[in-house]
Amino acid sequence: MGEAGADVLRLEGITRDFGEGEARTRVLRGIDFSLRRGEFAALMGPSGSGKSTLLHLMGLLDKPTGGRVLLDGQDTGVLDDDGLTRCRGRTLGFVFQFHHLLPGFTALENVLIPMAADRGRLEPSMRECARALLDRVGLVSRADARATTLSGGQAQRVAIARSLAMNPKIVLADEPTGNLDTQTADEVFSLLRDVNRAQKVTFLVVTHDRRLAERTDRIIELVDGRIVSDLPSEPR
Amino acid sequence: MRFEWFIAIRYLREGKAQTALVLGGTTVGVAVLIFLTALISGLQRTLVAQTLSAQAHVFVKAPERLARPLPSREQVTDHVEKVPDRIRSIEQWQQVLASIGTLPGVVAATPTAAGAAFASRGPATKSVTLRGIDPESYARVIDVVPKLRAGRFALEGAEAIIGTVLAADLGVGVGDKVRVATPEGRGDVFTVAGIFDLGNKEVNARWVFVPLRSAQTMLDVPGGATTIEVKVDEIFEAERMAREIARRYGLSADSWMELNQQLLVGLRSQSASSWMIQVLVVLAVALGIASVLGVSVIQKSREIGILKATGTSTGAIQRIFLLEGALVGGAGSVLGAGIGSAMAVAFARLARGPTGDPLFPVDLTPGLYLGAAAVAIVTGTLAAWFPATRAARLEPAEVIRYG
């Protein structure tokens, strides 16, 4: 584990059911795949194919009905609630479709919250660290702006900076550009790619946009809760 | 700064209207608490102090003599007549006095010999209560010295100390002579050594303090003491002390509480209704905090999901909302203490007796503030418990997906 090319995330026979009794539906029907360190993968599929559910399972925000999620070699099924939170905080970063920044806080504070939550307190060094991350996404000038005053693209950049706050092994991005115009989407996507290349962070990006997906290393397609194709993207 | 404090304070600052609402409610609640408690305790303290200005806490007397019919199966007694009682001394009162003085909780004890008498000067004659005392120990039981209006509180030879009303009735001042005699005709002439005002018209009109020895002679209890008057350190323990003394020495003992039952019933119902009001106020404040925080948890469910997704533990989420409750309680207690004190002081200024004197002081003690703050903070934290637990239980996946 840890060395280049090793699996940072592995899913084994994942199923996930929702509802009870008659209304019970199986959203994921046996998913097996793994992500290697430094990989930049796209997860595609029509609405309702189970993409978000799968992403939440990988992000330890949800538990599978069957199967195992191994994060950096660790079986996450054995962890309790706090263990999951800690593991999530330290190994995973999230970028959501609607950025999901905390509205009452500044850009800088949004970036340092994962660090403060992990340490249990706010330290001056965290501000420096958060400032550096904002610099990385080109937004240091907006560090003290309220989250609510940022444009869509800016907010998403802050969200990317936040996802990197704990130096994660994997960043899971749920339609990170779904809400942005084409040009901004391109810029944000390029930023993700840059971070991936520069820091060897593994990315899994859920997207509808085949044009963007083709800029990744690998495209995984999900239909009706099953992986129907898992191929390296066409070299452009 | 602790992470939870950072988030909780920010949430309170951010939710201005909600924070103002709960803070307002808590402030009013604490103000009512402070105002009522200060008022009631000041009022009660004044009432008790007035009652006890001329009264010892416990009165010990010789046991009552009862005519006991011989127990017999054939005889049916339908009426037992009480023995007509003359003034009697407590047997071995010196030893009893010394022993009572050593009981825990007793501050001081003093012997008195008391009985009915007439005081006269020239043609004026007044019916009085003759009280033979030992001035030195008596002053330790009843705080008479500061209430002296003229002369001094000492009895040497044939001296007497009388009340302001009696002095006026007889037209005497310090240094004048007064004749005091019992209904049996034993009497003496006393020089007025001092004039007191014990704050009770009846006492001021009737009590005549003379040396214990003179009273013993006039009341025909040579060397005796009819009463031992006791001061205790905890006035509301007087009843228990009285029972203890009665049991221990086989004497009859009454506490001031028994002798002022109406006052005590009044004080108790006053306390009870004040407690009731305060409990209801605290309950209303708790419900207010709980409901506003409950709404804020629902409004913030997506943010809570994000916090959890970015590494905030369930426990930390719960602590954030508990802290919000405690902070509201703490801030409310500071504001409420200010407003409540101002109200109490204003009330005490406005409520004046017919002579324009303040009727009673309000009791604003550090203990009251600390107590009110503790109540407010604990109430805030407890009230936040339900919303906090609810927030902690939110599933991040659910609120992020549907939120």
What is the topological layout?
The complex is a heterodimer of chains A (236) and B (403).
Chain A: E1 7-18, E2 25-36, E3 40-44, H1 51-58, E4 66-71, E5 74-75, H2 81-91, E6 92-95, H3 107-119, H4 124-136, H5 152-163, E7 170-174, H6 182-199, E8 202-206, H7 210-213, E9 218-223, E10 226-232
Parallel strand pairs in A: 3-8, 3-9, 6-7, 7-8
Antiparallel strand pairs in A: 1-2, 1-4, 4-5, 9-10
Chain B: H1 3-14, H2 16-51, E1 58-61, H3 93-101, E2 106-121, E3 124-133, H4 135-141, E4 148-151, E5 159-163, H5 164-170, E6 177-181, E7 187-196, H6 201-206, E8 207-211, H7 212-218, E9 227-232, H8 238-249, E10 252-255, H9 256-259, H10 261-299, H11 301-309, H12 314-350, H13 366-393, H14 396-402
Parallel strand pairs in B: 3-8, 5-7
Antiparallel strand pairs in B: 1-9, 1-10, 2-3, 2-6, 2-9, 4-7, 5-8, 6-7
Helix pairs in contact in B: 1-12, 2-10, 2-12, 2-13, 10-12, 10-13, 11-14, 12-13
Major beta sheet, strand line-up of chain B? 2-3-8-5-7-6
Gyration radius over CA of chain B: 32 Å
Strand order of the largest sheet of chain A: 6-7-8-3-9-10
**Tell me, what is the CATH class of chain A?**
Alpha Beta
C-alpha-based Rg of chain A, rounded: 18 Å
Shape of chain A: globular
Question: How many domains would you count in the coordinates of chain B?
Answer: 2
Oligomer state of the chains in this structure: heterodimer
Order of helices and strands of chain A: EEEHEEHEHHHEHEHEE
Describe the structure.
- The complex is a heterodimer of chains A (236) and B (403).
- Chain A has a six-stranded mixed β-sheet with strand order 6-7-8-3-9-10, sandwiched between helices.
- In chain A, a hairpin with a 2-residue loop joins β9 and β10.
- In chain A, α3 crosses α4, α4 crosses α5 and α5 runs parallel beside α6.
- Chain A is globular and about 50 Å long.
- The two termini of chain A are 31 Å apart.
- Chain A contains seven helices and ten strands.
- Chain A is 33% helix and 27% strand.
- By secondary structure, chain B is an alpha+beta fold.
- Chain B has two domains: 188 residues, no CATH class; 164 residues, no CATH class.
- Chain B contains 14 helices and ten strands.
- Chain B has a six-stranded mixed beta barrel, surrounded by four helices.
- In chain B, β6 and β7 form a beta hairpin.
- The interface between A and B is medium-sized, with 32 and 27 residues.
